[in-house]
Amino acid sequence: MESPAEKISLLIVDDHPGVRDGIRAVINAQPDMKVVGEAADGAEAIQQFRRLLPNVTLADVTLPVICGIDAVSLLRREFPQARFIVVSALDDEQLVDRAFAAGAQAFLHKNQLRRELLPAIRAVHNGQRYAP
After folding, report:
1. Assigned domain for 43 exists
2. Are 102 and 76 in contact (CB under 8 A)?
């Protein structure tokens, strides 16, 4: 069990460095969160996850090598208690369904990140599903 002094550790997976930079800045400004790693594609995400074992992973759908949903599915089989938030710039209800079926606990459209990211991270970390 995580002690109250420990921060929620996060892995950010997005192929756009500017997106990762912005998300990292928001997360690291929180007193209860810290980014422990980043990945630019699905294969790197799997490697980083196995190495870092973050509390929550934030994964974009559209990634090179292995898509975000497939990476979530692979990692959930290996780590059933892992917690994932899938994000996408695409407005597609089928992606939402696929993300939850793969084992994600939350799905956010990138337009929602500004207001929904932090509540989603906290909810998912606490074992809840989050769908704004």
Report:
1. yes
2. yes
